[in-house]
Each structure stands twice: as structure tokens, then as C-alpha cells.
Amino acid sequence: MNNKIKIHGVPMSQAVRAVLWLLFNKELSFELVLTVPGSKEENGTRHPSYLEKYPNGTIPALEDPDTGFLLAESHAIMCYLCNKHGWDDLYPQNPEARAKVDDFLHYHHRNIKEATLAFFAPMARPDLGLSEDAISMAKRLFKNALNMLENQWLAKNKFITGNQATIADIAAYVEIGQLQSQFTNLYNFEPFSNVTRWLKDMSSLKGHDDSHLVLSELGDISEIPPKIEDLMGANIKGLKHIASKTA
Ligand SMILES: N[C@@H](CCC(=O)N[C@@H](CS)C(=O)NCC(=O)O)C(=O)O
Q1: Ligand 1 and 58: CB distance under 6 A
Q2: Which residues contact residue 33 at a Cβ distance below 8 angstroms, ignoring those fewer than 6 apart?
Q3: 45 Cβ inside 6 Å of ligand 1
């Protein structure tokens, strides 16, 4: 019987990548179930059977075959997995240390997360039809958040909340890291010395390469927007890699 936990999603998704990275970091076996964001098809997030289980209709989503427990939202999933398995290094037990991680995870949503709407989606997802106003608002929010990271969080500590990486760093990296020159090449981080140092440190955190192969496959999209086949091809290579690692 297959008792691996199931994660619904595609590896290109920032939020999915965060959960996959945590699972690779902790070597917990899992199955990535291909679930297409926004699709009404049987394997899509807008199909009635998916919405019945996960009313938000988003990826990632977790299914625990041992208990039947279902959960969406990447941050909730990472907190749940850390709680369940006692991964206190990445989500500290100490109430104050944990509260600082939670602080950043809540802050993340309309700030660091804007990296995708500001830079990734306009090149890779023209089908979303984002307006110029929405894109420039996202750019403004992301720039403020990046400055906050540079001049506050990462000016005080090696990682976001202390001297050790936590799930707050993972959540932030999947957004910011995707824009680096070795991946999509959509943002120049050179003027941000603390962020640059942190990006390098994070890229050597266990599980980074396995969860980010999809972005190496996609490559530089700064000049020419990827075709749908390029996005699908990178996702398929990412999925195959993950399946080979978790078999
Ligand atoms: N806050 C959510 C965001 C996840 C999210 O935006 N997922 C996108 C794909 S990257 C999605 O499922 N979109 C499908 C839709 O909105 O129809 C999380 O952290 O899990």
C-alpha cells in the first residue's frame, strides 16, 4: 500500500516549490500529483472534485493517506509538516522564535509574494491578462519588501529570523530566487548585498537543487517570453526528476 503523502501541484509553482523543498530537505517520501492551476479538467484546481476537497482551488494541497487529512496553502502545509514531524530546526518550538517565523510568513503574502505578479507572470503567463496598473503596483510592493529584507531582516541576521534557515526563508526564496540570473534572469540583485549573500546561502540548503530543477530547465526568460510548450516541457522535466527522486 502507498502511504506516501500526496502533494498536488506543478513544480513551476512558487508555493508548490516551497513545500517540495521542505520535503526534500527532510527526506520525507511523497508523491507529487500533477494538478494544473486554474484548469477545469479532471486534473485541474477548478474541477468540482478538487474544489470539494480544497475550496480555495489552489496548489499546493496536501493529502495524508494515513489520516485522510486535507490541507491547502503552502505556509499552512509547511507549518503542519514541521509540527507533525518535529522539524524544530526549520520551525522552532520556542514560542517567540516561532512567532517571528509566523510574522514573516504572514507579511510575505502581499509583499515578497508580489515578485511573481511583478516579474514572472508578465513574461511567463500573459494568459492571466494582468493590467499595467496591477503590474506596477506589484513592482512597488515587491521593491519595498526587498528593501525591508535588505535593510532590516537580513541586515540583522544571517537568515530572515536568526542564524539558521527556517520555513520563512524557504517561502521567501521561492519567490525571490526564481528571478536570479541562473534561472529566469528577471531581476538584478547586485545592489542588494545582504540579499545576494542570503540567496547564495539558501541555494546550498539541502533540497534546493531537486526542487529547483524546473527553473534551470526553463532558463532565462528576460528577453523572450517562454512558449506554453517551454513551460510545459520544464514542468514535465521537473515532475520526472521529482518522481525519480521519490520513487
Ligand atoms: N497563498 C497560496 C497561493 C498559491 C497559488 O497562488 N497557487 C496558484 C499557482 S502558483 C494557483 O493554484 N492558482 C490557481 C487558481 O488561482 O486558479 C499558497 O501559498 O499556497
Answers
A1: yes
A2: 6, 7, 8, 9, 63
A3: yes
- b/e sequence 46-70, b meaning 16+ C-beta within 10 Å: ebeebeeebeeebbbbbbbeeeeee
The DSSP bridge pattern shows strands 61-64 and 5-9 to be: antiparallel
Which ligand 1 atom is at minimum distance from the Cα of 171? 19
pTM attached to this predicted model = 0.97
Fold classified for 95-208? Glutathione S-transferase Yfyf (Class Pi); Chain A, domain 2 (1.20.1050)
CATH T-level fold of 5-88+228-246: Glutaredoxin (3.40.30)
All CATH 1.20.1050.10 domain ranges in the chain, comma separated: 95-208
Give, for all 247 residues of the chain, the pLDDT tens digit.
578 999 999 999 999 999 999 999 999 999 999 999 999 999 999 999 999 999 999 999 999 998 999 999 999 999 999 999 999 999 999 999 999 999 999 999 989 999 999 999 999 999 889 999 999 999 999 999 999 999 999 999 999 999 999 999 999 999 999 999 999 999 999 999 999 999 999 999 999 999 999 999 999 999 999 999 999 999 999 999 999 999 8
CATH 3.40.30.10 residue ranges of the chain are 5-88+228-246
Does the Cβ of 57 fall within 6 Å of ligand 1? yes
Atom 10 (ligand 1) nearest CA: 13
